[in-house]
Specification:
The structure holds two protein chains of two kinds. By secondary structure, chain A is α/β, with parallel strands linked by helices. In chain A, 40% of the residues lie in helices and 23% in strands. Chain B is 50% helix and 17% strand. Chain B is globular, with a radius of gyration of 15 Å. The chains are: A alpha/beta, B alpha/beta.
């Protein structure tokens, strides 16, 4: 399995992913795991359309993940995986996308969430889901774009719970 | 009169409109819409819709010019396509805004969309190529 980046980003495919992360990790395939987009034909088509022709793209719902993991793509490509939320990332992991590291990119501020940076805000559910992911041995870090300093999630997590 | 929303990352949109106004004077029914790193998507979508409503006053429709196809501003604009009387052209540059300003009275929304795509492409030129073309 060749997962070159697994990322939580509520904007899914957008400029930071296409112009910064894809070249940085040299990905040639983007996988979005998101029920809302997978079930909305217009949003799905749009998301596929913004990906350059030389990069593969798969938008799948959670119930399609295990089939995707059994297919050839994941062995033959350098895959970048996007989840909108930590909940999606945890489900995706359990469904078979066993990434070794998880990047936290964009989780924008909403009421009742606590910020650790300009782009990352966490509610209690987010923290609980990330702790579960961390317990699987996944190394979680916060880094919006490759030139940002990477923050270790474990250190932030204690502060969020305090 | 066709309305205009310029939608970009950071402060580019307002700077582009400001630059255009420096050259051709005030642009009525034009708004900038900027997306920064920390903005929430749903909030942004509402702000964009509000900008569209503000400039689309007389039913002639609204042109949305974005900085980059695939970027968040362009993705938000694309989501307005089914519900609003808008066309979206990506890869905005200053000549496109100037062309828009000088043609907005005479064209339909669809004609404007085609014109700006062509004009935007044509406006990217190498000075050396232009000069050598003149000489030869």
């Amino acid at each position: 399995m060749s997962i070159v980046l697994a990322r939580v980003d509520n904007r899914l495919i957008h400029g930071q992913v296409l112009e910064a992360w894809v070249p940085y990790v040299d990905a040639d395939y983007i996988v979005v795991v998101d029920d809302a987009v997978a079930h909305d034909l217009f949003r799905k088509q749009l998301m596929q359309a913004v990906v350059p022709a030389d990069i593969g793209v798969e938008i799948c719902s959670h119930d399609q993940v295990s089939r995707f993991c059994q297919g050839p793509v994941i062995d033959q490509h350098r895959v970048l995986i996007l989840f909108a939320t930590p909940e999606d990332a945890l489900s995706g992991y359990r469904e078979g996308l066993q990434y070794a590291e998880l990047n936290l990119g964009n989780m924008h501020a909403q009421e009742g969430k606590r910020c650790i940076s300009r782009t990352l805000a966490f509610g209690p559910d987010d923290v609980a889901n990330l702790e579960q992911i961390s317990r699987q041995g996944v190394v979680i870090s916060a880094q919006c774009i490759p030139t940002d300093r990477s923050l270790c999630w474990d250190c932030q997590c204690e502060e969020l719970k305090a | 009169m066709i309305g205009l929303v310029v939608a970009t990352h950071a402060g580019l949109a307002s700077a582009l409109i400001q630059a255009a106004e420096t050259i051709v004077g005030p642009l009525p029914c034009a708004r900038s819409f900027s997306v920064d790193k920390s903005s929430d998507l749903e909030q942004l979508q509402q702000q964009l819709q509000q900008a569209i409503d503000e400039v689309g006053v007389d039913g002639a429709g609204v042109i949305l010019l974005t900085d980059m196809f695939g970027g968040t501003p362009a993705n938000l604009c694309a989501r307005c396509l089914p519900s609003a009387d808008v066309e979206v052209v990506n890869g905005v540059n200053l000549p496109m805004i100037l062309k828009f300003a000088s043609s907005r009275q005479n064209l339909s929304l669809k004609e404007m969309e085609a014109l700006l795509q062509n004009y935007g492409r044509k406006s990217i030129v190498s000075t050396r190529d232009v000069l050598s073309g003149v000489k030869s």
